[in-house]
Here is the input.
Amino acid sequence: MKINCHKNDLLNGVNTSLKAVSTRTTLPILQCILLQTTQNEFKLISNDLEIGIESHVKANIIESGSVAIDARIFSEIVKKLPDAMVDITVDESNMTTIICQKSIFNIPGQPGTEFIQLPQVTKDTSISIKQSVLKDMIHQTLFSIAIKEIKPILTGELIEIKDNALSIISMDGYRISIRKVEFMDDFSDTAVVVPGKTLSEISKILSSDEADMLSIYFTDKHVLFELEDSIVVSRLLEGEYPKYANLFSGDYETLITVNRKELMMSIERAALIARESKKSPVKFEIKEDTLLITSNTELGNVHEELMIVREGQPIDIAFNPKYLLDALKAIEDEEICMQFTNALNPCIVRQVEGEDYKYLILPIRLNG
Here is the structure.
């Protein structure tokens, strides 16, 4: 194999591919990046058996071939190369020579044929969406996936297409996050659960440019995200995702409208007192047109007061401040609504108008 490309193009491909390199594996080949040329394309491929990435790099292909190179060494070399053209040559023994100006590296590789290829995903069922929109949707929901694998299905996010809308849903047993976007075109109903790790890594690749699109393809076992210069393939989590829709009732006893940033800052200050003890909540006292936020711990106490618009009954309720803050930081609206039924039932955080996002948060029982 012999190719010629620019260092910056190569580095972009390496950085993308690194996101699917296995760090803990009994298969050393998966700690490599596969360099492969096919049909006038130069590809960098990585695969940890849960997520796989194929990144395309602009290059002049002189001789086709493939080689698997240790990802850590290869990436460190590429990072340190001058900003110039890079020549990569692989001989019959898989010795890989990297030349950039006066820098020359000789790195032993492994046969490309030994690398575990990415799963083949048929491109039948698909949707197209702006990369920036999907990036925001992941950011606004990923924080509430389950970290511990007590229920493995909850370590992923449900991607659901229904009634010409795409929703991403996550839950961890204490809260639920939903982000929804409407489509103009017709799409078949689909529901798959994608590992949180996959969505975390793909969000780092996605562009924030409004013009950049991607296609998503679904099968029974895999999902494929196709970008302009790369593809990401992931296995799906098996099992039935918990029913969530009925938990978001439209009924409430108390509804408040409040400035999101002011509420967030007040909770952050109250959390300074509560943070040393996970069992110490922040307490909401919703009065006529005022929200009192308090916290009392061995470190001291804090009292915050916010102006609100209230419908319904006054209520006292308490929360883990982190769960509220995670939701509030993911929202960009100036004002939000919070609806309550009683001190023991979940609170729902939602838009003043619209259904783009909804968050459900369980309260903490108040003593006495």
Summary: Residues 248-361 form a domain with the DNA Polymerase III; Chain A, domain 2 fold (CATH 3.10.150.10). The helical segments are 7-17, 71-80, 131-139, 196-205, 260-274, 321-330.
